[in-house]
Amino acid sequence: MLGEIEEHLGATISTVDSDFSVPIDEFDGKVIYGEKRSGGANFATHVLSLATSAAQLADLETKMQLEYLKNNQHVFAVPAL
């Protein structure tokens, strides 16, 4: 995969040194992934668009935890004194 990326970029990708410093190369700051938005990000709209999905995930999580507890009552049962 690295070879394909290097071929696409037309350059060899540097490796990390033993001190984990990354060498500076000709692509630093020049490679942009995705489409740049005019006007920047809109956090409020993004949060609102995810609110329904987050609520559904929270509901599913609660249901799954209750189902797990129901199916494993024998594991969580408190022994009689």
* Average pLDDT reading: 81
Gap from first CA to last CA: 62 Å
Total number of beta strands:
0
Return the string of H and E elements: HHH
Q: How many individual domains?
A: 1
Index terms:
single chain, 51% helix, mainly alpha, 81 residues
Describe the protein in words.
The chain has one domain. The protein is elongated and about 70 Å long. The protein has helices at 2-9, 43-71, 73-76. It has three helices and no strands. The chain has 81 residues and is mostly helical. The mean pLDDT is 81.
Quick summary of this structure?
The protein is mainly α and 81 residues long. It is 51% helix and 0% strand.
Itemize the secondary structure elements and their pairings.
Elements: H1 2-9, H2 43-71, H3 73-76
